[in-house]
């Protein structure tokens, strides 16, 4: 792959749109849509603040069992595409009344049925001045 294939405008538009679809589904607690956006495979991985999920079945079960995500504001979102079939999306977010900024990353791959998250990671750094581990 050459540097000319990084952030092809049409691919970047596609991934930006599907990333926005994910965020809307998260805020609306649309579990079916969220589950659709993850690759339905045992190789899918999602690390959360307190959970480690291996495989689509675990991600789906987690989504169905958890309460809706708190309202949040995305900041410093960066989406980078590599060729026509791979992308990385990273963002920071601030939840309402939260003391710290969260981090989220997703690796997206174009599958036959559309763009899917194959790997995701959500983390919260320690609150400044705190000794509590999150």
Could you characterize what this model shows?
With 134 residues, this protein is of the alpha+beta class. The protein has helices spanning 9-28, 31-37, 56-65; strands spanning 45-47, 52-54, 72-82, 86-95, 102-111, 114-123. The chain has a 6-stranded mixed beta sheet with strand order 2-1-6-5-4-3, with helices on one face. Helix 1 runs antiparallel to helix 2 (31-37). The radius of gyration is 15 Å and the shape is globular. It starts with 8 loop residues before the first helix and ends in an 11-residue tail after the last strand.
Q: Which geometry do the CA atoms define?
A: globular
Strand order of the largest sheet: 2-1-6-5-4-3
Please give the alpha-carbon distance between the first and last residues: 39 Å
Relative strand content: 35-45%
Instruction: Give the biggest sheet.
Output: 6 strands, mixed
SS element count, helices: 3
Helix and strand content put the structural class at: alpha+beta
Q: How much helix, percentage-wise, in residues?
A: 25-40%
Order of helices and strands: HHEEHEEEE
Q: Poorly predicted ranges (pLDDT <50, ≥5 residues)?
A: none
Number of β-strand runs = 6
Radius of gyration: 15 Å
- Mean pLDDT, rounded to whole units? 94
Which key terms come to mind for this protein?
134 residues; globular; six-stranded mixed beta sheet
Concise account of the structure shown:
By secondary structure, this protein is an alpha+beta fold.
């Amino acid at each position: 792959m050459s540097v000319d294939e990084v952030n092809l405008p049409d691919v970047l538009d596609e991934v930006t749109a599907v990333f926005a679809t994910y965020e809307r589904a998260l805020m609306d607690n649309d579990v079916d849509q969220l589950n659709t956006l993850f690759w339905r495979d045992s190789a899918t991985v999602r690390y959360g603040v307190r959970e480690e999920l291996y495989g689509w079945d675990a991600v789906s079960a987690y989504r169905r069992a958890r309460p809706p995500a708190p309202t949040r504001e995305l900041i410093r979102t960066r989406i980078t595409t590599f060729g026509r079939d791979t992308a990385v999306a990273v963002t920071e977010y601030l939840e309402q009344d939260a003391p710290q900024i969260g981090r989220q990353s997703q690796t997206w791959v174009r599958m036959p049925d559309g763009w899917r998250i194959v790997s995701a990671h959500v983390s919260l750094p320690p609150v400044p001045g705190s000794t509590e581990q999150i």
